[in-house]
């Protein structure tokens, strides 16, 4: 029985290598590993209890690391004996830098089994071996991500355990979203998502912090619209002269959002992606007929804002997509108003309304756009 494969892991070669040889990591990542005791340098005694398909039973195994070349490669040699028979396996592991923060691990292995377990057939055993190896690397991937993360820890934190990732480019972020799908969640300003994490209403495996993506910041005039980067803060929006000039209704709306402190961190893209029906920005951009730019590996699309908000805290974005920009057409009605009622200033609106209105020269109403929000 033999096989090979490769996997990309978060972290540079040194970090990954250290994790791979860490007995604590191995104990937690080897399927059915009950105990792993170091006997001498690079030799461990392992108690395994494997229960996959017909391969059930306990093995007393010895695991030896050979030809260790830090941080490039090593051999893993396993001999195990137990009720179901014996296993002899040898694997070669190589690490190559993909970039500063990613490593590619490639492996090849060969294994022989004997005794009762051999009777279940090579095809079945091949499948079981694959399953055990895939499980090992899935767990390793998670552990390496954990070691990469700064300040991550378990029971002392209010949120459930997650691995913290901090990409520095949009491309890297999209790769992570593609790779982790449902298991990864973006964090931008954190003003809505941190409370959600703390209340454990969301328990992502990977938290993808996008605050370093400079390309998603800023407000600029381009053609017939103003483009607002998703990471632009609510405070930047409030203070921006172009916004004041072209869309004064936004300035009216933003001052109702929380407090200066929350607006300093909360982002425009985060507000839209969060899709809280009582939030001021989704409502305002809806009235302004803005376009929302959403990106994934395969596509950059313009989401129709009229169909973007599906229901409470839900948009039409897929887990592998990121909101990158909001484009607001310059041609807007001249009349505007934003009003809301909340129990105290800074609280979420119980009810809010935005109105954009244009009149002809005689003062007769030509068009009205009204959007309603609230709890
Ligand atoms: C005390 C307090 C009072 C507040 N009061 C108000 C208020 O009155 N009105 C109001 O509107 N808001 C209020 N907020 C929420 C605040 O406006 C948030 O900043 C905003 O809702 C989310 O923006 P964020 O950047 O903080 O997003 P985060 O909290 O980081 O993320 C929110 C959600 O959006 C997703 N997300 C973020 N960015 C992107 C992106 N670019 N692409 C895809 N998904 C993304 C995240 O995965 C998460 O699901 C308040 C917050 C606090 C703490």
From TrEMBL:
<protein>
    <submittedName>
        <fullName>FAD binding domain-containing protein</fullName>
    </submittedName>
</protein>
<dbReference type="InterPro" id="IPR002346">
    <property type="entry name" value="Mopterin_DH_FAD-bd"/>
</dbReference>
<dbReference type="InterPro" id="IPR016167">
    <property type="entry name" value="FAD-bd_PCMH_sub1"/>
</dbReference>
<dbReference type="InterPro" id="IPR051312">
    <property type="entry name" value="Diverse_Substr_Oxidored"/>
</dbReference>
<dbReference type="InterPro" id="IPR016166">
    <property type="entry name" value="FAD-bd_PCMH"/>
</dbReference>
<keyword id="KW-0274">FAD</keyword>
<dbReference type="InterPro" id="IPR023393">
    <property type="entry name" value="START-like_dom_sf"/>
</dbReference>
<dbReference type="Pfam" id="PF06240">
    <property type="entry name" value="COXG"/>
</dbReference>
<keyword id="KW-0285">Flavoprotein</keyword>
<keyword id="KW-0560">Oxidoreductase</keyword>
<dbReference type="Pfam" id="PF00941">
    <property type="entry name" value="FAD_binding_5"/>
</dbReference>
<feature type="domain" description="FAD-binding PCMH-type">
    <location>
        <begin position="157"/>
        <end position="333"/>
    </location>
</feature>
<dbReference type="InterPro" id="IPR036683">
    <property type="entry name" value="CO_DH_flav_C_dom_sf"/>
</dbReference>
<dbReference type="InterPro" id="IPR010419">
    <property type="entry name" value="CO_DH_gsu"/>
</dbReference>
<dbReference type="InterPro" id="IPR036318">
    <property type="entry name" value="FAD-bd_PCMH-like_sf"/>
</dbReference>
<dbReference type="InterPro" id="IPR016169">
    <property type="entry name" value="FAD-bd_PCMH_sub2"/>
</dbReference>
